[in-house]
Amino acid sequence: MSVPTSFNISLEFDAPGLGRRWVALLIDMVVQVLYVILASYLLGKISIGFGSDAGFNQWAIGLLAMSPIFLYHILFESLTNGQSIGKKIMNLRIVSINGGRPSISQLLIRWLLRVSDLWIVILLLMLFSFRAGGDTEGMIAFTFGMAFLLTDIILVANSKKAQRIGDILAQTIVIKTSAGESLHNTIFREVEEGYVPAFPQVMRISDKDLNIIKNILGNAKNSRHHDELAIAATKVKNYLQIETDMYPYEFLERLLKDYNYLSVK
């Protein structure tokens, strides 16, 4: 897929297939189920007695112990640059619609709209309930859940950028990353002792645009994108009012290195 950026340059990403995304989701669900089993076992070994409030205290501790299940995706995706455990294993990543790192607000919107994931579990529970004799309200909820789930599946399978409902509203996309991804493919750069930054103006660039620069540098490994690298370098020089004879790749790499030094100074 081709994603336009604020540098007026389109970044190219590989869109993952529906099967790969389902496998990633299944892995995440297995991780969550294993956590529930472990937490339930440990809670069963704990005996809490605080008089008449013992039952309430047990319930509160149980709710607290299960909170990581509800916060699983938002915690992992915000702390690991858009990847849950399943996405990491399947080489998937969430990025902003402009190719940069998604903001916390975007990840939060996406997390709040992970309804279809919940419905997978709920639908299975309802299916067993119907076998035991379900009611009309249950059938309505089942129908609503199935409709929401099918909508997400259809959108991912047929939309141009493979976006589900949460992705569309959060302005995010899921991309396929290379299996050999390293720290050099992030904005992180190692800075040697005694390093002297050349362009302190880099601190005027937003984190979003720094991530876009990182992606442009990654695409520059392909000779077809050398012109785009020069355009990005020129635009950054004009914005920061920098004059330098550095080659575009060298200049943008130096910017990221300066940022790493100045951001922790």
TrEMBL record:
Protein's UniProt keywords contain Cytoplasm: no
Record-linked InterPro entries: RDD
Domain spans labelled RDD: 16-170
Protein name as catalogued: RDD family protein
Species in which this protein is naturally found: Niabella yanshanensis
Topological category with respect to the lipid bilayer: Multi-pass membrane protein
Chain segments annotated as transmembrane: 22-44, 56-75, 111-132, 138-157
Pfam families associated with the record: RDD
Compartment annotation: Membrane
Keywords from the UniProt entry: Membrane, Transmembrane, Transmembrane helix
Domain of life: Bacteria
